[in-house]
Amino acid sequence: MTVALITGANKGLGFETAKQLLELGHTVYIGARDVERGEKAAATLGARFVQLDVTDDASVRAALAVVGADEGVLDVLVHNAGILADGAVDGPAALRAFDTNAVGVVRVTEAALPLLRKSSNPVVVTVSSSMGSFWAVTNPDRPEFGLPLALYSASKAAATMLTVHYARSEPGIKFNALEPGATATDMTAAFGIGRPPEESARVVVRLATIGPDGPTGTLQDESGELPW
Fold this sequence. Notes:
The chain is an alpha/beta fold. The protein has helices at 12-23, 35-45, 57-71, 91-116, 134-137, 150-169, 197-208, and strands spanning 3-6, 27-32, 48-51, 76-79, 123-127, 174-178, 218-221, 224-225. It is globular.
C-alpha cells in the first residue's frame, strides 16, 4: 500500500487531492497547521492527520516522525501548502511568502528524505505555478502576464528551481513541479477565477502516481511539460 503525505490538505486543492488518492487505495496523511480543521478534514475523508506547519522546523520534524513511526516509509509527498502574498510588497511580506512557498519545500523535503529513500517508487510533487515561469509572465498572450503577484511569482519560481535541484541530487526519487490549473479556492477568491478543485486535483494525482519510468526535474501542467 502506498503512503502519501500532503501539506496544507485540510481544504481546497490539497483536500481534493487527498480524497482522490484515498479512492485509489493510498494511505493518506493530511498535514495542516490547524489541528481542529485538520482532524475534521481527515475524519471526513477517512484519512490520517498530522499537525504540520511548513514554516516551523519542529512541527515538520514531528510530523515526519509520526509518519515514520506509523508506516516506516513514505512513497508520495505533495507540497501543497502555500500562500498568495497578494498584499503589500515589502520585506516582511517577502519573507513570509518565501518562507511558506519555497523554504517550506526545503523543510519538508529534508525531513521526508529518509522515509522517501525507503520507498520502491518515491515521488515528490511540488504544487508550483505558471506564475513562476519567466516564459508565461512575459508572454502577453498568457493570463499570467497581467497578474500583479510579484512575491507569489518569485517564490514559486524558487520552488520550481528547488525541484530541479532535488531531482539532480536525489536521482532515486522523482521530483516534479506542477501548475495544476486555475482553481477556485480561498486563494483565488479575490480574482473570481478557477475551476472546481476536484478537476485540478486530478492533475496533481496524475503526477503523484507516475511509475518508475516517469519524468523528473520538470515543471508540468495538464498538457505536459511547461516552459519556464
